[in-house]
């Protein structure tokens, strides 16, 4: 999916180890952002969110248990929470990210006209109302 985003011209940001994995998979244009816990280092992912330099955040959370807690405040959790605070869309599952890639690949084939849902519904051959 990251390769598809790159091919469509999107700028890809990732933390250090994710960037290494993406680069090993052949994605060349990955910009590395520092984690939340590395707040002094720049560029930091929270700074990028606050400065509105990130338009979409894809993060697949991993279940982590520690003691009696079902989760701990991981960097991923904090980043997802901050993205929501700054009204940045967050995708947290693989199926939705994959669907987004498919839709974006088709965007140039759909034309540029904007229509209401009712206009689309009027074109249906059957109606339940």
Structural features:
two-stranded parallel sheet; single chain; mainly alpha; two-stranded parallel ribbon; elongated; 129 residues; 6 helices; 40% helix; Rossmann fold
Descriptive notes:
- By secondary structure, the chain is mainly alpha-helical.
- It has one domain: Rossmann fold, CATH 3.40.50.
- It is 40% helix and 8% strand.
- It has six helices and four strands; from the N terminus they run αβαβαβαβαα.
- The chain has a two-stranded parallel ribbon with strand order 1-2. Strands 3-4 form a two-stranded parallel ribbon.
- Strand 3, helix 4 and strand 4 form a beta-alpha-beta unit.
- The protein is elongated and about 60 Å long.
- The mean pLDDT is 83.
How many strand elements?
A: 4
- Helix fraction by DSSP (H/I, runs of at least 4): 25-40%
Report the portion of residues in β strands: 5-15%
Could you tell me how far the N terminus lies from the C terminus, measured between alpha carbons in angstroms?
A: 39 Å
Shape-level CATH architecture: 3-Layer(aba) Sandwich
In short:
The chain is mainly alpha-helical.
Question: What order do the helices and strands come in, and which of them pair?
Answer:
Layout: H1 2-7, E1 12-14, H2 16-24, E2 30-32, H3 45-50, E3 57-58, H4 75-85, E4 90-91, H5 94-106, H6 117-122
Parallel strand pairs: 1-2, 3-4
